[in-house]
Specification:
CATH class: Alpha Beta
Radius of gyration: 17 Å
Strand order of the largest sheet: 4-5-10-9-8-11
Oligomer: single chain
Number of helices: 7
Shape: globular
Order of helices and strands: HEHEHHEHEEEEEEEHEHE
CATH architecture: Alpha-Beta Barrel
Distance between the termini: 45 Å
CATH topology: L-fucose Isomerase, Chain A, domain 3
Structural class: alpha+beta
Largest sheet: 6 strands, antiparallel, barrel
Amino acid sequence: DLVLDETRAIFEIDKTVNEDDFRWAGKVAVGLRQLVDDFDINSLAYYHRGLDGEIHERLGAGMILGCSLLTAEGVPAVGEYELRTSIGMLMLDRMGAGGSFTEFQALNFNNGVVEMGHDGPAHLAISNGKPILRGLGVYHGKRGYGVSVEFDVTHGPVTVFGVTQRKNGTYQFVASEGSVVDGPRLRIGNTTSLVDFGVNPGQWCDDWSATGVPHHWALGIGHRVSELKSIAELLDIEMVVI
């Protein structure tokens, strides 16, 4: 009940949220916090397909709320077992930039923006306003149904940051600076942000994808490329800036 009270204080609870799904998400959140405490976890990634409503599917479908709460507390938690992105989120978080789990959603050529986000987990500390908890009958990247987090990242300067791995096993950083702008957003229980990179969205998408970066990355507030370059130099890691 304490987690549910915390959730009600943090979120605007949409009418689409089913009470049973809400309580299940709260129960899973308690378990996740206990897991982090028991094993002193700094970051985590998860994925289990599950089938036909059995316990593993329900568990995976119920993790968005708990993982979002953990991420806001400095323990990045990501879906689709994207371990490399959890590293990127951890780095941005420690830099004070947040770092929210993100992927492509759409290219808006009319407004010149790249629409990006995910159906959780999200970094609640960098929400532009009070985040919304919305009920979804279908997720992407996981099976099942339940509650999901919706918001856009604080408007203004942002950095997208991905961690990729070359064929020889070495790591590579990929980053780009832009600005989150206001505009119409899809209300689909996702962390949709409209990012203006100052170039044609299609060209930016091609250049970003050509680096081989994973299809998930971290989205953080502020322009952080100079700081990331310094970290890359200290760690002797190649860095590509788009």
